[in-house]
Write a structure and sequence with these properties.
Elements: H1 14-24, E1 36-41, E2 46-50, E3 55-58, E4 61-63, H2 70-75, E5 82-94, H3 100-105, E6 111-113, E7 119-125, E8 138-146, H4 152-156, H5 176-189, H6 192-200, E9 205-213, E10 218-219, E11 222-224, E12 230-231, H7 239-255, H8 260-286, H9 295-304, H10 307-314
Parallel strand pairs: 4-11
Antiparallel strand pairs: 1-2, 2-3, 5-8, 5-9, 6-7, 7-8, 9-12, 10-11
The chain binds flavin-adenine dinucleotide.
Residues 35-36, 64-66, 70, 90, 207, 226-228, 237-241, 243 line the site of flavin-adenine dinucleotide (FAD).
Length: 319
């Protein structure tokens, strides 16, 4: 153990957040299985056209359609998420599979392993069916590793049939050799606690880390929010919070405006700046993990890659 820091953290899992939100939203307004294909607007209304040919006309359209947002691609066709220069190996492990020493010393804490230029991170989350009881919870594992965009990343995203995937690869298609190399690196570079944790991983997930910064969030009667507009690298743990903050800011702006277009302009004026700061902060914290770095980023790495800085800058006091 190199450094510890006392700091209460509140952690949750997507399933749990989703259930609360889904239960609060009237079922009659939730239409699953419909794919948005096109949007068009004039001074009077905005029209959404779906893949089945159906159309919906409305005063306002909000593109909350994620990192590959079809709405954003229609409005800002030249903008795309940018690869950050590193990947995350991820896994969710059952608490009950942890040997007793690991369960006592590591499981309850947010723990970091810091091989040079890399970051291993683990923390407890709710178990299946949002179970918070000891013994039924799960442990979230993330291991950031540099991967050059033109060599290592292509190799990692190429499946056993030789098919090179673009942005992500389904876990069952990750080549055994790629997983074996990751396991081998764990044995060589990680402390014993994290080596034991990697040995518990059955089928890892591979996530190339990307970010995205949109110049605009309002386009007449159309707004883009959440990951559709801004994607931060994971170190600020702000993905869900900033999507919710965009939604709240949009509702506020519309409530105080005379018309939809004016409301969206006010929303954009506040949220673009907030989101830019989040994206910049996450880039700053993750720069030391990149396969290649500018001179500034290298200087930054020396300050931010050390254990005391990672603990102080990643975790924030709970309230
Ligand atoms: C592996 C991983 C781990 C993460 N961990 C965390 C974490 O610990 N904490 C955190 O805060 N964030 C985390 N994030 C980020 C977080 O998931 C996102 O920031 C957040 O989900 C963004 O919410 P959103 O509503 O903007 O977009 P999304 O949650 O991506 O939702 C977009 C929705 O739009 C739908 N959609 C897309 N195209 C169409 C179409 N053509 N027609 C109709 N619907 C469409 C999609 O089906 C989806 O339901 C993680 C992300 C990943 C990939």
């Amino acid at each position: 153990m190199v450094a510890t820091r006392g700091c209460t953290q509140i952690l949750t899992a997507w399933e749990r957040v989703y259930r609360f939100l889904r239960d609060a939203f009237p079922a009659a307004h939730y239409h699953q299985g419909r794919t948005l294909a096109a949007v068009a607007q004039d001074a009077r209304a905005v029209t959404a056209t779906f893949a089945d040919g159906s159309k919906v006309e409305a005063d306002l359209l909000v593109g909350a359609d994620g990192i590959r947002s079809p709405v954003r691609q229609l409005l800002l066709p030249d903008l795309a998420p940018g690869y950050a220069g590193y990947v995350a190996w991820r896994a969710l492990l059952a608490e009950q599979d942890f040997p007793s020493q690991l369960r006592e010393e590591i499981f309850p804490f947010m723990s970091f392993g810091l091989p040079p230029g890399e970051q291993f991170l683990g923390y407890p989350v709710a178990g299946p069916d949002n179970d918070l009881r000891a013994g039924r919870r799960r442990y979230n594992v993330i291991w950031y590793r540099p991967a050059d965009e033109h060599t290592t990343l292509i190799d990692l995203l190429t499946d056993s049939n030789g098919v090179a995937h673009d942005n992500s690869i389904p876990p069952p298609l990750i080549r055994k050799q790629a997983i074996d190399d990751m396991r081998d690196a764990a044995e060589r570079f990680l402390g014993w606690q994290f080596r034991d944790i990697v040995r518990l991983i059955d089928e890892p997930i591979l996530q190339p880390i990307c970010d995205l910064e949109s110049p605009r969030m309002a386009f007449g009667r159309i707004a883009i929010v959440g990951d559709a507009a801004f994607v931060a690298r994971p170190h600020v743990a702000a993905g869900v919070t900033k999507a919710a903050d965009d939604a709240a800011a949009l509702a506020q702006a519309l409530a105080h405006a005379d018309n939809v277009e004016a409301g969206l302009k006010n929303f954009e004026a506040g949220q673009v700046a907030v989101n830019r700061r989040i994206i910049q902060r996450a880039r700053h914290l993750g720069a030391y993990l990149q396969a290649s770095q500018t001179a500034d980023e290298r200087a930054n790495s020396a300050r931010h890659g050390i254990p005391e800085a990672v603990l102080a800058e990643t975790a924030l006091p709970g309230t």
